[in-house]
Amino acid sequence: MANGDVVKATIVGDVITVYINGVQINQARDSTYATGNPGMGFFLRKGAGVNRDYGFIRFTARDESR
User: Fold this and answer.
1) What share of the chain is helix, strand, coil (3-state, %, to 5)?
2) 27-37 pLDDT, tens per residue?
3) Stated pTM of the model
4) Are 48 and 42 spatial neighbours (Cβ–Cβ below 8 Å)?
5) Which residue among 46, 51, 62, 63 sits deepest, i.e. has the most Cβ atoms within 10 Å of its Cβ?
6) Counting Cβ atoms within 10 Å, is residue 19 exposed (0-12), middle (13-18) or buried (19+)?
7) Distances 14 to 7, 41, 51, 54 between C-alpha atoms, Å
8) How far apart are CA 31 and CA 50, in angstroms?
9) Are 6 and 18 a contacting pair, CB within 8 Å?
10) Cα-flanking dihedrals φ and ψ of residue 8, to 5°?
């Protein structure tokens, strides 16, 4: 990932798809949470002190099912 990259994730039913710069990089099925409010966060294993090295300058969420 580089400064300016666009990260996108979609959830349709139980299928989660992740894209970077419009290219699908991963897809998974997870029916653990059928309802609720999505959110996002970061987790770095053994990553103490590096939180300043990444982040988002813009975040958008929308419900396209309506």
Assistant:
1) 5, 30, 65
2) 999 988 877 77
3) 0.65
4) no
5) 51
6) middle
7) 19, 20, 30, 28
8) 32
9) no
10) -135, 140
